[in-house]
Amino acid sequence: MRLYVGLDVSLKTTQICVVDEERRIVWRGSSDTQPGMIAERLERLGRSVTLVGLETGSLTPWLYHCLKAAGLPVVCIDARRAGDAVRSRPEKTDKADARSLAEMLACGWYAPVFVKNLDSHRHKALLGARDQLVRVKRQLCGQVRGLLRPFGVRISQRAGAKRFDEEARAACRTDDILYASVAALLDVLASVTAQIAALDKAVRQIVTKTKACWHMMSVPGVGPITALAFAATIEDPHRFGRARSVGAYLGLTPRRYQSDERDVTFSISRQGDDMARHYLYEAANCLLTTVGSKSALKSWGLKLARKIGPKKARTAVARKLAVLLLGLWKKESHFEPTLVEA
């Protein structure tokens, strides 16, 4: 008898439902959300377990790899598709959700999701921490400017970190109360800037040891941050049959609704990894506005900007960059200025 196991995971407890080929419930139970305890529960079923399914979520990478290491046939299911099955039930409980997942496995109505390894998640955590610190730095700079503006003090938008600190302190040095307020923010700003520099150094160390990132950084506008973000998001370039599919995977292709005579094209889907999409967009902007060297990709992007506007052109170039980076990764080659990927 083949058995299919659905796991509805929460932070503390995981509901477990086991069904057979006819989708009849064989066993129901719960466990603490610990891979060892879940595996111990499933060991009682013997070798009859055909598939164990869980949804995409924040705990999925940890549980998936630990259960896989325990010898269980684990698959990850897209939470959006699982949501369609859950919503079809008259009740919404954790037990009912676990049963829905088990029934999806039994009838084959699921598409397995690629689960990245923990090293990729470590790299994404590093980039995520850096991104948060950059946001905090930007907010602190804005707050300092806002505190000084009622007193007629304006600091140049192009002022670097050192000059910004010096001008802000000098502007309010004669006012004890204002100086105390601004100095407190500037001290925090200096600490945040130092932490960003430390994370940037860690990123460069990882990138120098990664051959794929070395190939990606040969593209104008693509630096260590963008290369590492793309590598951590994709992980395995060969899981894409066509290079053009990576654009849709990162949410850089337009949404479309077609029914009968109605056919509407919307803006980009924005699905997939927000961070990788953001850095590709920034790389596209850098390529079109900052990079001085000529290339077919830059010429194509500038021509497109004159036709449809700079914002849409940057999005289109970002999609081209995603396709190009994936191609370079697969071929293990460097960028050719005369080449424009489809």
From TrEMBL:
<feature type="domain" description="Transposase IS110-like N-terminal">
    <location>
        <begin position="5"/>
        <end position="149"/>
    </location>
</feature>
<dbReference type="Pfam" id="PF01548">
    <property type="entry name" value="DEDD_Tnp_IS110"/>
</dbReference>
<dbReference type="InterPro" id="IPR002525">
    <property type="entry name" value="Transp_IS110-like_N"/>
</dbReference>
<dbReference type="Pfam" id="PF02371">
    <property type="entry name" value="Transposase_20"/>
</dbReference>
<dbReference type="GO" id="GO:0006313">
    <property type="term" value="P:DNA transposition"/>
</dbReference>
<feature type="domain" description="Transposase IS116/IS110/IS902 C-terminal">
    <location>
        <begin position="216"/>
        <end position="288"/>
    </location>
</feature>
<dbReference type="InterPro" id="IPR047650">
    <property type="entry name" value="Transpos_IS110"/>
</dbReference>
<dbReference type="GO" id="GO:0003677">
    <property type="term" value="F:DNA binding"/>
</dbReference>
<protein>
    <submittedName>
        <fullName>Uncharacterized protein</fullName>
    </submittedName>
</protein>
<dbReference type="GO" id="GO:0004803">
    <property type="term" value="F:transposase activity"/>
</dbReference>
<dbReference type="InterPro" id="IPR003346">
    <property type="entry name" value="Transposase_20"/>
</dbReference>
